[in-house]
Amino acid sequence: MIIITHVQDAIGRIQLNSPTTLNALNLEMGKQISTILHTWESNPHIKVVIIESLVEKAFSVGIDIKEFATNNTTHYRRNFLDIWTSITTFSKPIIMSINGYAFGGGLELALMGDILIASDSAVFAQPELSVGTIPGMGATQRLPRRIGRYRANDMILTGRRIDAHTACSWGLVSQVVPQDRLHQTVTDTANRIAAKSLPTLIKAKTALQLADEQPLTQGLAYEQDLFLSTFDLDDQQEGFQAFLQKRPPVFKDR
Questions:
Q1: Is the model's pTM score more than 0.85?
Q2: What angle do CA 145, 150, 151 make, to 5 degrees?
């Protein structure tokens, strides 16, 4: 199976499992992930999703070039891009757990996440120009917003590889941990998120995504609207009461 899923408590895991291709991204893999996320979108018990690799050497080395070369139509390529980029429409937080190679479309997949945590073995690159094309799953737009235009220019125009610690210092990932601690660190982060109220998680993610898409004035106005809307939630009342009573909140996700 190229995709394996697990659900435990409020955490859903999507595991990439194609060792022979180092998790090269193909259409079938994208369809499976899209279907899973569509199902989990409406599952009120799942609050956060982890996307990770079961392949020791790689998170993903990018698009499956063999499949792309044998499907030489614009329709196939557009369908491929639409399916993979649909991940960004998922309303709940996604944590990307990155080990080994995250190249090309693999890095672009990671950039669709909300939190990126890398092992110290992770290596990042956008090598598309070396095979006569350019990034097509978001790197020319998302990467400059994460690490700055000139560093993104360097990575994309040269294909230069960067290690995990450089990626962290540039702001590409939030933290770097030893390989043997990656799973636990990601799980701990997911548990911290899962302890929150689902409606507020969705509102917070929506506001954060707008930071990439709207001018500051519009983004601040939208944030205020979302903030005020939380006061219609039972969970907001519970959160305030729990704080005043010096106890942990018990959220009902409503």
A1: yes
A2: 75
